Amino acid sequence: MDATTDKEPLVQEQIYEALCVLGEAEPEEILHSCDEYLRQHDKLAYPHRVIILKAMETVVRNSIDLLDKSTAKDVIWEWQQAASNVLVAVGQRFINKVMEEVLTKFQPGILPHYFVLQTFANLSVSNGE
């Protein structure tokens, strides 16, 4: 996974595809490995973190019926937290665009998802002046 930091887009795409292929064979193992890698590399630049998160999303979507319930719950929680963190980090520079996207998740009469609220709150804290 260290190769995700390669600046060459073709290499990044190959890493993403490799993670997805491995995820087809061993979804729980790949999801746990990605999760552990992201935890160990909490300073990983967000563009590179996104590659791993995208791969995790693809593996979850393609293997949701095969995942153990506890794995799915843990991975989805971690994935959503990581995605929220990415939005907050991007929002430090592009607050208007991120806010525009987050606000689309607020629908009249529907309680927003926990991570939408958390992202909204963290955006306000990280951009408060």
UniProtKB/TrEMBL annotation:
Residue ranges annotated for the MROH2B-like N-terminal HEAT-repeats domain, each copy included: 20-127
InterPro entries, per the entry: Maestro_heat-like_prot, MROH2B-like_N_HEAT
Domain of life (superkingdom): Eukaryota
GO cellular component, one term: cytoplasm
Signal sequence residues: none
Any matching Pfam family: HEAT_MROH2B_1st
PANTHER family: MAESTRO HEAT-LIKE REPEAT-CONTAINING PROTEIN FAMILY MEMBER 1 (PTHR23120:SF44), MAESTRO-RELATED HEAT DOMAIN-CONTAINING (PTHR23120)
Name of the featured protein: MROH1 protein
